[in-house]
User: Fold this.
Amino acid sequence: MELSLNQATVKNLTLEQATGLCLRHEIPAIGLWRDRVAELGLARAAAAVHAAGLHVSSLCRGGFFTHADPQARAAALADNRVAVAEAAELGADVLVLVSGGLVPGSRDLGLARRMVADAIGDLVPFAQELGVRLGIEALHPMFCADRCVLSRLGDAVDLARPFPAEVVGVVVDTYHVWWDSQLAGQIDDARGRIACFQLADWVEPLPADPLLGRGHLGDGCIDLAQITAQVLAAGYRGHAEVEIFSQQVWDAPADETAATVRRRFRDQLGGL
Assistant:
């Protein structure tokens, strides 16, 4: 399993700066974010990444399907088609999908999940046509209301199962799924469908914005080696993306962050 640096870990850098950082620190792959791609322009972004010889392990993100207004739902689906086309142009392994939270004005969790399932079903033929794999991500339950109504890896697997595994897979993000006592079985159920593996640690105390409660590998309480071994046992052979949302990490010099990412990846997971 080779290392990838997700752009979110060095969010203050432009795409070109991030690719240069990966080259300096011999990190062979990068996970891209659509806003940074848009800043440079899709064609120039694709050219920059490929000229650097970097593998694109993911594109973040699509999704956010749960809108009450039909026009808003249609706009979200249209934007997701654009994201699929971007992933194809960039040669990304997967387009990461974050489903969206509860429908505005509703407490109906089942309705929101049905909307997500319907939207993914609508998106699949276009993704299949362009050769893009969709990766459904489950987020920690504290984000259920506003970001993602899929809270367990098993929820994502259930949504992916009706579709060919090469078209719809799932994302295993340690920060979001580590807490689940049934995780080992869910990873095994995801065999053949793990499209992306993301790493970050859970640090305490959580900051005021829990979205930023991630730390470098080894700084928190997640058994990263155990989860990684389970993902490997389930047949995953892609890159391991380090994706850290943390103000402290963002405030550090980018070269220091990249060096720490490499060192911790080696120290925490080098024996696997």
Summary: The CA atoms of residues 201 and 215 lie 5 Å apart. The chain has one domain: 3-269. Strands lie at 3-6, 29-33, 55-63, 95-98, 134-137, 168-173, 194-199, 201-202, 214-215, 240-242. The first helix runs from residue 15 to 24.
